[in-house]
Amino acid sequence: MTTTAFRTDVVSAMTDLLFTPGLELSEAVDRHFAPDYRQRTDGRWDDRSEFTAHIAHLRGIVAGGSIRVLDELVQGDLYADRHIIDVDKTDGSSVSMEVYLFGEFAADGRFRRIEETTLMLQGADGDRNIGSAR
User: Which of 117, 115, 111, 132 is CA-nearest to residue 55?
Assistant: First the structure.
């Protein structure tokens, strides 16, 4: 069970990762993701370094955006949510994704594991894999 007062959540993590200009990527990842972090997005598993490469790619194409949590549940070390992330890209286009997420916290309150499935609500066909693009 998580033993620290700090506990991250999807809005805090995604805001630091994608929507906070000037925050170093390594600092954002360290703040919200444990060293043994793993993520599965639409069936593809990534370790922490692969996840960080994905976020670095997104930082190059994302100009801004927002995230809205529709449902959220925390039970012990388990976390689940359904959220919509709206992204404005540097090319002027936009993408809106609905995400169904299940996660687990490490003892220090950071995410240890996330498994998610995405549903594109708006965007170009080429953006369907934005949740795992590199």
Answer: 132
